[in-house]
Structures are given as structure tokens and as C-alpha cells.
């Protein structure tokens, strides 16, 4: 007899960082790997809007994590299809807060989770810290990606509430 699978246990134990969002971008759940990746406690995230829980670094004019992540999540909500982002800078507060941000680069895959009736239920996002790769990749790759990011920001401006 095959033992019953405890999916909550699997979610919590997976080594990949996962975040679960509602359609309003309020964080519904995270796994232990996600908490470790963003250096936060569960109660700092659950029930909070994504961009309130993980605010952008106000001192970093180059980083566009909020805009890029917001546009990606908008594409997922509109299309119902997965959206992949290879390199996005979104600095995170270091443990202890106090407006001390650490440079962070992320790769993410976001997708919808549908209910049995086919209706939208959740967005699940897997992130990966790619700072080591981002620091050592040729600068020409950053420049090549810049026009696309600019187009995405212009194309999606105002289409997603990121308050």
C-alpha cells in the first residue's frame, strides 16, 4: 500500500524557495527555503502584501525589482501562463531591518494555481538567488537586457496595483 502524501510537508521541506500569493499579491504561505533566502520570519511575511513585506531599496536607483516582479506577476494573472525572469535586482533588508539593504539578484518562475473548477486560486513563485552569477557575468548582458526591461515597465505601467 502506498502511503498518503502530505503535500504541506513536501512544500515545507523542498530545498527550492517557494512563495504563495493570492490574486491581491498578499502572501498566503512560504516555505522554509524561502524564509532562509530572504532572511525573514514567517510572521513578517504571511498576510502582508508582497511589496510591503519585501520593500524595494529606496537608495538603489538601478534596481527595478518591484517593477519587474510586478510586471511578471501581472503577466501571470492576465495570461494564466508561467512567467520566467532570469535576472532581477531586488535588494532585501538585512536581518534586523533598520533600512540596511543587501544587494540581491534573483531569478524567478511564477505560475497560477487553478482550483478544481478551473478558477484562479493562487500564484506560486519559485525564486533563486543568482547574485554570484550576476556579479561575474559580462556587463554587456546587463546592457542588452535594459531596453527590454524599459519596454516592460512602460508597457505594464499602471496595470498592476503595487501600492
Ordered list of secondary-structure elements with their pairings:
Blueprint: H1 7-13, E1 18-21, E2 27-30, H2 32-38, H3 42-45, H4 50-53, H5 65-79, E3 83-89, E4 92-93, E5 101-102, E6 105-114, E7 120-129, H6 131-136, H7 139-156
Antiparallel strand pairs: 1-2, 1-7, 3-6, 4-5, 6-7
Helix pairs in contact: 5-7
Domain PAS fold-4: 11-131
Protein name: PAS fold-4 domain-containing protein
Organism: Streptomyces swartbergensis
Overview of the structural elements:
The protein is globular and about 55 Å long. It has one domain (15-153): PAS domain (Beta-Lactamase, 2-Layer Sandwich). α5 crosses α7. It is 37% helix and 24% strand. 25% of the residues are buried. It is α+β, with helices and mostly antiparallel strands. It has a 5-stranded antiparallel sheet with strand order 2-1-7-6-3. The chain has a two-stranded antiparallel ribbon with strand order 4-5. The longest helix is centred in the last third of the chain and has 18 residues, at 139-156.
Q: Which key phrases capture this entry?
A:
globular; 7 helices; single chain; 37% helix; alpha+beta; disordered C terminus; 163 residues; Beta-Lactamase
CATH architecture descriptor name? 2-Layer Sandwich
| Number of DSSP strand runs | 7
Name the helix and strand elements from N-terminus to C-terminus, one letter apiece: HEEHHHHEEEEEHH
Average pLDDT number? 79
CATH class: Alpha Beta
The shape, in one word, is globular
**Remind me, CATH topology?**
Beta-Lactamase
In angstroms, what separates the terminal alpha carbons?
A: 50 Å
Q: What ranges have pLDDT less than 50 throughout 5 or more consecutive residues? A: 146-163
Helix content: 25-40%
Spatial ordering of strands, largest sheet: 2-1-7-6-3
Beta-strand share of residues: 15-25%
Q: Measured on Cα atoms, how large is the radius of gyration?
A: 16 Å
Amino acid at each position: 500500500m502506498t502511503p498518503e502524501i502530505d503535500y504541506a510537508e513536501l512544500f515545507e521541506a523542498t530545498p527550492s524557495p517557494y512563495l504563495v500569493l493570492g490574486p491581491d499579491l498578499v502572501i498566503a504561505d512560504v516555505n522554509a527555503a524561502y524564509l532562509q533566502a530572504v532572511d525573514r520570519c514567517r510572521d513578517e511575511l504571511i498576510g502582508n502584501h508582497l511589496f510591503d513585506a519585501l520593500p524595494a531599496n529606496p537608495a538603489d536607483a538601478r534596481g527595478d525589482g518591484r517593477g519587474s516582479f510586478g510586471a511578471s506577476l501581472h503577466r501571470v494573472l492576465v495570461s494564466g501562463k508561467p512567467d520566467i525572469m532570469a535576472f532581477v535586482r531586488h535588494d532585501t533588508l538585512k536581518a534586523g531591518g533598520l533600512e540596511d539593504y543587501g544587494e540581491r539578484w534573483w531569478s524567478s518562475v511564477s505560475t497560477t494555481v487553478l482550483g478544481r473548477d478551473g478558477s484562479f486560486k493562487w500564484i506560486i513563485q519559485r525564486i533563486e538567488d543568482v547574485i554570484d552569477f550576476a556579479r561575474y557575468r559580462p556587463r554587456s548582458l546587463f546592457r542588452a537586457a535594459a531596453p527590454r526591461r524599459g519596454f516592460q515597465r512602460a508597457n505594464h505601467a499602471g496595470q498592476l496595483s503595487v501600492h
